[in-house]
Amino acid sequence: MTPSPLPGRFAGRTAVITGASRGIGLAIATRIVDEGGRVLITARKPEPLQEATAALGGSEHAVFVAGRADDPEHQAEVFATVGREFGRLDVLVNNTGINPAYGPLVGVDESAARKIMDVNVLAALSWTRQALAAGLGADGAGAVVNMASVAGLHPAPGIAYYGVSKAALIGLTVQLAAELAPAVRVNAIAPAVVKTRFAEALYAEDEAAAAAGYPLGRLGEPADIAAAAAFLASSDAAWITGQTLVIDGGAGLRASL
Question: Could you name the domain of life of the organism this protein comes from (predicted)?
Answer without folding.
Answer: Bacteria
